[in-house]
Amino acid sequence: VEQPPWWTRAVVYQVYPRSFMDSDGDGIGDLGGVLLHLDHLADLGVDVLWLSPVYPSPQADNGYDISDYQDIDPLFGSLEQLDELIAALHARGMKLVMDLVVNHTSDQHPWFLESRSSTDDPKRDWYWWRPPREGMAPGDPGAEPTNWQSFFSGPTWELDEASGEYYLHLFDRRQPDLNWENPEVRQAVHAMMRWWLDRGVDGFRMDVINMISKDVGPDGHLHDGPPLAGSALGDGSASYLCGPRIHEFLQEMHREVFAGRDGALLTVGEMPGVTVEQARLFTDPARGEVDMVFQFEHVGLDHGTSKWDIHPLRMRDLKASFGRWQAGLADVGWNSLYWDNHDQPRAVSRFGDDSPRYRRDSATCLATLLHLHRGTPYVYQGEELGMANYPFTSLEEFADVESLNHHVHAVSAGHDPAEVMTALRCMSRDNARTPVQWDGSPNAGFTTGTPWLAVHPDHVEWNAAAQRDDEHSVLAHYRRLIALRHTDDVVALGDFTMLLPDHDEVYAFTRSLDGAELLVVCNLSRTPYRLAELLPEAPAAELVLGNLPDDEPAELRPWEARVLRLP
Ligand code: TEU
């Protein structure tokens, strides 16, 4: 029989280098810092390090605006250090996955500077240049070629005064979108990717990769989207999410870059808005596209009309969503599993209970729930320490371009500044970006300088040094969960069945493989439950792993999680 791919048993750890560890005292994390803390990763037992962008960049979006794909920003270190990191990880049996940001470049990338230089430059067509709307002059209100709203507020089009044309940017105006319709663009990206693989990297996390194919239609035009409520702009997503050539582009990339070496690699496509049906196509190994995708359904369940319009998560919705993804990718394809990354608020604050009484228990409960699903779990730096949202009180404390742009646009559109602040405090990406809390010293051991973003004041209590030798800690629990996936085939490969789909507070499911069966039960609330009343088979089953002391078998305590082996 064919062996399942190695990543079906793997756990990935995401490093956001700017906030991980600063080795040179400039207040910004760097590769030297990553090298200093590889023991932390090895001790946790993770198999792969996914490194957010470290390439040369003006840092308009913390490195997701790249001005040179084949070098390292001096802010983060050097290519030599990257090589050192590859070697150090490989020596410990770990792999390195790089971030691949090719939907857009920085507006300072030489490709864009050339493209912008004149309308007949050979690279003009490498980006999306368009004249103003029919009958309008450049710069007229509403003259943008389409009505699309950018992910970072405002229109997706920026006027270039010199040529009188606009360029497309789905994200910030300093992140112009590459034109993947142009084969030279695709070839340049493929060559760059091969260069990294030849250097020894083990795969890519592909930023917003389902946005690279835009729907130009038979007439070669981009089209307006439906109007957005309360805005002059529209939703262009039907024109750029999973566009007409997306599968063709990914299959071509697979042939040109991964063919012959894909058994050792890991490829994961970040895909906002992707559906289960689409994900089956993207991750069906027979189609040769990507190994797995990041989907966004579960992190959108507390959104209203936008991420800033916050609704409490309903447990039924979470079960329905995860359940559908588990079932949808059961026979073909593969799931990736995550609560947190550098774009999401901290899970313990968002879906758990970060009050002093329940913070440790809810962090470990959420972790157990996620890590016992079928798929490849991703741990975001600090999640394994129970790091929480930052207590932001003023606008000056934020650095993120998405947060700052939103504030400007929302306030100028007449929203109550106090309400805008409340939304930012809960949802801002900066919640995930405060420095990793290594110890209880000033600046949490992250830097000897002034940190670029404030260190959470709770680091005096919540830090890696305090948790390392504490068997009851969040860190120790993550270590046990990761080890369980490595040693228990049922965890890695077993079938998934959701139980109690309509229960409002208890999340339960089974995993089974070749007659062996695990029962997982998680209490996502402060209410204690009689276990026998929920799941009669549970009290007698053998405890494999729990997050609370094993001294009250009959009761499922607040935020308790148990993994049980059924006879
Ligand atoms: O994010 C893609 C994305 O659509 C969202 O997660 C987005 O960042 C935002 O939170 C929507 O509200 C990826 C990167 O992960 C992110 O850091 C970058 O800013 C973005 O692409 C652009 O490269």
TrEMBL record:
The keyword Hydrolase applies. The keyword Hydrolase applies. Residues 14-433 form the Glycosyl hydrolase family 13 catalytic domain. It comes from the Bacteria. Keywords: Hydrolase. Transmembrane segments: none annotated. NCBIfam families: PRK10933.1. This is Alpha-glucosidase. It comes from Blastococcus carthaginiensis.
